[in-house]
Amino acid sequence: MEEFVFARYEKLMPRIIKELESRNITGYYAKDSKKALEIALSLIPEGTTVTHGGTMSARAIGLMDALSNGNYNFVSRDNNPNKEEVYLKAFSSDVYISSTNAITEDGILVNIDGTGNRTAAIIYGPKKVIFIVGRNKITDDVDGALKRARNVAAPINAQRFDAQTACSKTGSCGDCKSPDNICCEFVFTRYSREPGRMHVILVNEDLGF
Q1: Residue 173: φ, ψ to 5°
Q2: How large is the average pLDDT for residues 76-101?
Q3: What is the layout of strands, in order, in the sheet containing 128-134?
Q4: What is the DSSP secondary structure assignment for residue 205, as one 8-state letter?
Q5: By the 8 A CB rule, do 183 and 173 touch?
Q6: Which of 43, 49, 190, 195 could tie 73 with a disulfide, CB 3.0–4.6 Å?
Q7: Distance (Å, rounded) from C-alpha 86 to C-alpha 52?
Q8: Distance between CA atoms of 75 and 52, rounded to whole angstroms?
Q9: What 3-state DSSP class applies to 123?
Q10: 56 touches 205 (CB < 8 A)
Q11: Where does the pLDDT of residue 77 fall: very low under 50, low under 70, confident under 90, or very high at 90 and above?
Q12: How does the average pLDDT of the chain come out, rounded?
């Protein structure tokens, strides 16, 4: 069964990459996590300042470990108790690592955030943004992407952070206004006005939430 799933996305992902290119976003195809890591590191020169959002996909391919152990100025909230300081440093960083809650087949990135630090850095600040995106994040259209972000990614993240939200209890969006709400900011990225700033690595594996 896996070989047929793999074959489907092997055909689909180059089409998405063309759509991304039409939006001034550079796309890459990686057949697996090993190749994704290789591509990501090729986009990050040694000695540069690198920051990241709460991406499980980048962790899954080994990128966080590679940055921690490599010749980079890796500013991570994992080893800095002052998260606000790390969030602010992201805006002046050379490279920002993220994933996306969903991506449409025509290349639109959809992200939801609670604090807004991740979505803000995606929009503006870092010189380069690299998205690590597993095939499980691909949806038909924006409506499907939004549904995925709210009803798949958000409930899992709410449970991961022990947030007291409706979705953490039911597993699907309750359109809540809880103080722990992790769906405060909605960002749709449909075009990059800065050539060479946004890079999307599509990985033919399920990664993250």
Answers
A1: -65, 135
A2: 93
A3: 26-30, 198-203, 128-134, 95-98, 49-52, 73-74
A4: S
A5: yes
A6: 49
A7: 9
A8: 8
A9: helix
A10: no
A11: confident
A12: 96
CB 39 within 8 A of CB 33: no
Say which amino acid occupies 134. Answer: G
Q: How confident is the model at residue 78 (pLDDT cuts 50, 70, 90)?
A: confident
- Edge-first strand order for the sheet with 102-104 is 138-139, 102-104, 109-113, 185-189
- Do the strands 138-139 and 102-104 form a parallel or antiparallel pair, or are they unpaired? parallel
Asked whether the beta carbons of 182 and 10 are under 8 A apart, the reply is no
Rounded (10°) CA dihedral 58, 62, 66, 69 = 110
* Rounded Cα–Cα distance for residues 151 and 156 (Å): 9
Tens of pLDDT, residues 180-205 = 999 999 999 999 999 999 999 999 99
CA distances from 67 to 18, 44, 93, 111, 168 (A): 29, 9, 14, 24, 32
Dig out the tokens for 198 from the structure: 């946004």
Instruction: Identify whether the C-beta of residue 209 lies closer than 8 Å to the C-beta of residue 156.
Output: yes
The first and second tokens of residue 115, run together, are: 């604090």
Asked if pLDDT for residue 206 goes beyond 90, the answer is: yes
Residue corresponding to tokens 């180059």? 14
Instruction: Using a pLDDT cut of 90, give the percent of the chain over it.
Output: 91
pLDDT value at 80 more than 90: no
Using alpha carbons, select from 182, 147, 146 the residue that is nearest to residue 165: 182
d(CA 32, CA 21): 22
Q: How many CB atoms lie within 10 A of CB 118?
A: 25
> From the centroid of its chain, how far is CA 91?
16
